[in-house]
Specification:
Length: about 190
């Protein structure tokens, strides 16, 4: 009789802990599904969402390049222009900038301009050398933040051949080359 009671007690405790484990396991499954869903959205869906043509004209911003000459956003007309806003202290920028630079070298028909925001020339120059960045423009006063609605780094703004902002991608995207390919093929016509 005593053994039967102990067996029932053990069975009840085991059942309770199994339910807790399954509930906790289900919670982790749900969390994993949400993370995977966000990653799919960030990498494959969001970069394919473009604003309607002619909605937002690009601001007539002018920045100095690292080597002294002026860069005018309006000079990008006739080509798809990617403005890559970053800061040297931004860890995700350090991961994404080399991907963007590699894509830029492979696609000379597009214009890619990395823009260092909020930092002086010497800091920007050191960072550009370290990461082998080309055509770097400077925005030491941070005017890009209100002009292009840059809220965080990295941020890439895509401007079509007619000078209209068609997309803005914020945050690290490991598949940024895929997003840039899609934008170039959509807007170079």
């Amino acid at each position: 009789m005593e053994a039967a009671k102990e067996s029932q007690l053990f069975s009840a405790r085991s059942s309770i802990s199994t339910r807790r484990l399954l509930t906790g396991g289900r919670l982790w499954d749900l969390l994993a599904a949400l993370v995977i869903g966000f990653a799919v959205w960030k990498i494959f869906i969001a970069p394919r969402s473009f604003e309607a043509a002619g909605t937002h004209p690009a601001p007539a911003a002018i920045y100095q390049r690292l080597h002294g000459e002026a860069f005018r956003v309006a000079d990008g007309r006739g080509r798809v222009l990617f403005l890559d806003f970053y800061a040297s202290w931004c860890e995700p920028c350090k991961l994404e900038l080399p991907l963007v630079e590699a894509w830029s070298r492979a696609h000379p028909d597009a214009a890619v301009v990395p823009i260092d925001v909020g930092e002086g020339r010497s800091v920007a120059a050191t960072f550009a050398r370290r990461y082998k960045l080309q055509n770097v423009a400077l925005d030491p006063n941070g005017s890009a933040r209100p002009l292009f609605a840059v809220e965080g780094f990295p941020t890439i703004v895509v401007i079509d051949r007619n000078g209209f902002i068609r997309a803005k991608w914020e945050g690290l995207n490991p598949a940024i080359a895929l997003a840039m390919d899609n934008a170039l093929s959509s807007f170079e016509r």
